[in-house]
Amino acid sequence: MQPTEDLYQTVQAAAPELTPKLRGICQLIETDPVGFIRSTARELCNQLGTSEPTLIRFCQRFGYAGLADFRIDLALSLAQKPALTPFGVESNPVDRRAVNFSAKDTIGRKAVHLLEGDTSVLFDNGSSAERLAAHLGNLAPLVIMTRSLDVAQTVLSHKQHQVMLTGGNIRRETMSVTGRLVDTALSEMRFDTFVMGADSVDPETGISTFLEDEAHQNRAMIEASGRVIVLADKTKFSKPRLHRICAMDRISAIVTDLEPNHEIANRIRERGVRVISTQEDGVND
């Protein structure tokens, strides 16, 4: 089976055909979807009375390599069903870091050269931004502001950069801050560059996300920046999500692992956006 747009519905529809062990996993997803996404694999195995290979086999039944990418798509599916998760649900940050780690790290290494000559950079939260932050050690000192506690810690490890947090309410699930204080902090500042990840990149629609407050915070960060660089592995070029962040004309460059002449990359270039592929030498398009 191939991954589907509405994973939650697909799982529930398949439940009657599954073995008792796999059906038990379906039932947990139905009764406690947030717990299924937030728990560790060991916690899930203890709760279900099953093994980790069984969990992986369940995910593979629906076209996924393992638990991490299955749960990311499950979170996206649940975001379209607010009645099931009235307080919202975000994918597990541990899962996000694990999925496509090598691609994200290569993208981050490729993108770091775009920051040469900058003096101030604004960083989004998320696993892609974290990987770029990990490669800032050879750059001249920068002033870096972020709303991600993980990005801040990573940048501090390089020792030469000044790090600021926007302030706001800490969202424990993502180790990032949100709320009106983010807007207040950004309203009086101007950065050379904003580095962001994306839930979805579409040549026509632009950049979008499934969370309303994430879209709002990202718009504020875009307005506070001279240019915008998007980090997006090839899985992010997908159907637009509910909340649009910005149109393509606001993006300066997209760094990706798409092939240089991929049809989507060419359509984005037609919109006037620079596309930099990790599969080509240098940073020129």
TrEMBL record:
<dbReference type="Pfam" id="PF01418">
    <property type="entry name" value="HTH_6"/>
</dbReference>
<dbReference type="InterPro" id="IPR014036">
    <property type="entry name" value="DeoR-like_C"/>
</dbReference>
<dbReference type="InterPro" id="IPR000281">
    <property type="entry name" value="HTH_RpiR"/>
</dbReference>
<protein>
    <submittedName>
        <fullName>DeoR C terminal sensor domain protein</fullName>
    </submittedName>
</protein>
<dbReference type="InterPro" id="IPR036388">
    <property type="entry name" value="WH-like_DNA-bd_sf"/>
</dbReference>
<dbReference type="GO" id="GO:0003700">
    <property type="term" value="F:DNA-binding transcription factor activity"/>
</dbReference>
<dbReference type="InterPro" id="IPR050313">
    <property type="entry name" value="Carb_Metab_HTH_regulators"/>
</dbReference>
<dbReference type="Pfam" id="PF00455">
    <property type="entry name" value="DeoRC"/>
</dbReference>
<dbReference type="InterPro" id="IPR037171">
    <property type="entry name" value="NagB/RpiA_transferase-like"/>
</dbReference>
<dbReference type="InterPro" id="IPR009057">
    <property type="entry name" value="Homeodomain-like_sf"/>
</dbReference>
<feature type="domain" description="HTH rpiR-type">
    <location>
        <begin position="5"/>
        <end position="81"/>
    </location>
</feature>
